[in-house]
Design brief:
Blueprint (H helix, E strand, L loop, with lengths): L2 H19 L5 H29 L6
Length: about 60
């Protein structure tokens, strides 16, 4: 897993943890945290797919 994928995974989990541990947040802040977790999660999936595509090349030596 690349560094960017790890960073995006940590950011996704931290935003979900803050959302889960603080149920008394304002509506706007909760919506912002949900949107951030979706964006970070999508970025994590893209980083995983891009990392696999770039690293896989067994012919070049």
């Amino acid at each position: 897993m690349s560094r960017s994928a790890v960073l995006l995974l940590i950011m996704t989990l931290s935003s979900l943890a803050v959302l889960w541990l603080s149920p008394a947040l304002n509506e706007g802040i909760a919506l912002l945290l949900k949107g951030g977790s979706v964006v970070f999660g999508a970025g994590f999936l893209v980083a995983l797919m891009a990392g696999r595509r770039i690293k896989f090349d067994p012919v070049l030596r």
